## 1
Amino acid sequence: MEKITKELSGKTALVTGGTKGIGKAIADELASLGATVIVSARHEPAEKLPYHFIQADVTNSDSISELAGQVLNQFGSLDILINNVGGTSAPAGGFSVLSDEDWENDLQLNLLAAIKLDKALVPSMIERNTGVVIHISSLNGKLPLYASNLSYGVSKAALNNYSKALANEVAIKGIRVIAVSPGMVNTTAMKAFLHNYASAIGKSFDETQQLVMDSLGGVPMNRLAQPEEIAHLVGFLSSPKASYITGTNYVIDGGTIPTTF
């Protein structure tokens, strides 16, 4: 019987924040396509994952250097880098309630972590003239919600701009760089955000979810995405089938942002 070679066989991938939510779904997707998957997170998962785990805090420069060193020392090279880590703990309420620390934390987590990890790992891709870097951004990078997550949206907008600039710089060196911007996704992080926002504005969870959807202009599909739906797109973009795609930001939001030409 002829052996079937999977699209990512022989490739090594790192997924930051890969132990839960969108990151876990992406790790599963890349593994299903044949990749050797490494996941990192601040804390070791409660349940053992079928991937190589490296504990790392990507908001810490020393931790990033150690993570990159372990990846290259143990696996020799990296083919796919998924900068998935992101989030916010900043309060709702607009610009006047955000402290300097809120801004610094969101910029560190949603922008600088990716920049620093790219700087640590992309040079090894350039040496081999091949590699894929995907930045998991957010719909809020295009549609910032000032009342609920202003600093998060601003940091993701900056990530989008950086991603495009990096793509233009390294395309000639064989590296593809892409951003993926999900809308509302059914994850524990999204539920925590909605619960916190509901408490802040004195509404129920369901009312708050609908309020956020409405504030985005509505979601034509009238539901949240599942993490696996984001992961399927990332799997395709990581594969040779997407070999002519770089410098693009893929919005996957159930139709929230109108298509423009």
## 2
Amino acid sequence: MQLDLKKLLQEYKKGKISAEEIEKKIRQEKILFVKRHTVIDLERDYRCGIPEVILGEGKKDEQIIDITKDLLEKRKKVIITRTRKNLVKKLKKTFSDKYNIDFSDIAKICVIKDKKLKEKKEKIIVGVITAGTSDIPVAEEARVVIEELGFKTIKAYDVGVAGLHRLLDPLKEMIEKGVKIFIVVAGREGTLPGLVAGMVDGIVIGVPVSTGYGYGGRGEAALKTMLQSCASIAVVNIDAGFVAGVLAVKIAKIVRDAEK
């Protein structure tokens, strides 16, 4: 269970808990040692506004199950990125009695939630756009992360510069719905983020994708194009859908707090 500092301080004020007990509870919530392979940062959401997320890539199934089990004792939800179907089967076998388990095959994200957990979405909407169909997996990684971290999204896929007229209506809809944060995902020459930035009053996050081939392939040309964009855009690394999603959420939280 996540530590409620406000409640602890109220109990201290009423004399129901000592300063030493509060210190002990805070120390217990700083880090979580999972056997001998992982140290979880439990304070990340307090410091950064984003909780610890498990990267599935490169970890053994048993390690991820260990981490998930211990983390669920502290939190009501766990997000696992870059995961795989065979692992999800094991996670369902282990946790499905108490938790809802959702897996996006295209985003490669698994979300495990307490069945009693009630969540609400913020009003701010993030637009997610791709140049091509091949860019959708990276875009979906960003979109699912944004949704799971509490914000709404609206998407427009396969609307790249090879047929620019496809972009106009979806972009108009996003603008009319008040979208101010746009994630634009593109491979090949990576032109679309700069183009979108020249058409909207908002922040554009460019995500280069490793869908190109030949000279400048594997996302390199797309990355260079975005970095050289005449329009002012933010750019993350190649295929970094998760990073783009987190960045969008951080910006959305700043906008939300400024509007209060």
## 3
Amino acid sequence: MIGSRTPMNDHIIVSIFLRGAMDGLSYLVPHGDDDYRAARPDLAVPTSAVMTLDETFGLHPAAAPLWDIWQKGQLALVPASGSIDESRSHFDASAIVETGLGPSEIGGSGWLGRYLTSSARGDQLEAVAVGRIVPRVLLGFPAAIGLANLETFRLGPLRGQGISGTVDTAVRDLYPPPGSDLISTQGVASFGVLDTLEAAGLTGRDTPAEFGDSSIGSDLWQASQLIEADLGVRAITADFGGWDHHDGLGLFDDGRMRDQLDALTNALAGFWTSIAQHHDRVTIVIMTEFGRRVGQNSNGGTDHGHGGVMTVIGGGINGGIHGDWVGLGSDVLDRGDVPVLTDYRTVLAEIVDRRAGAAGQLNEVFPEMPTGAASYVGVA
């Protein structure tokens, strides 16, 4: 039951999903691997252009906004990570990753929804999905709120017509508290959120230039305002699509991958700078449904693969490259794909345990897998 337990701490998990299956080998480049360059004669990022992290990996040059976060030890990257399920279907793989369960349970609750439910405290804004959808990852936590834009999430546009007060009163009269049926309950809850946002002065402002000009920049700007206002938010989700690059992936200094990484990393850097006072209680985790094939295709892109890259950002995390990596030799590939050597749930469990302080809830959050410190990769 919502509100029946006490949360372990006030940590905020920001979950960003990259829909379309990001090519991890273009983002976290294995520049020290000759097999990488051989598999991608036209698409490999030149070693001279890579932002070197260690002898094996470096970042795509378009991810330069993350460099300062890396230097401060606040960026962790997990290559060869993902779901152990072998689906290459966007729909099925996304559902599996967001639920954190097996393929037979993809219609169930989301891992983040279960975490929130297991430690809920009853605040109106515990979980907020910024952007156009409330994603599957929040299913199972009915108090999750979808917030596309702080400016439009209110009756404010009617104020200019001088009738907002009348409309506000009339609509509220339709849903008087406490509300017994589902629609009335949600109506009462929505007005509670409206009142909270307006009382905090969050009525919408233009996205600052440092967040970039993109949908993810706008979404993370909304998220930063919610965190700064200290309204009891414990989980924020955002989606950023456009990663299904079967063709036109582009070269390291031009093309769709460069543009996507530029938009994502500028938004992340802007967000991280804007919440500098909250770094120790915020963890960002970035995932995608699966990675791409190691070899390029004949259309200048890459097709659906398996292992990808997880990104974790946080104050006080263990920055660096984590998890296993066996290279890209033909003898270690998974049917031509990067193998999954780290189950993504292992990383999420470590965050829920060591960052959110909810070790006691792990069996509820990830009921189908054994969890514990012995399996952790060391990001937190």
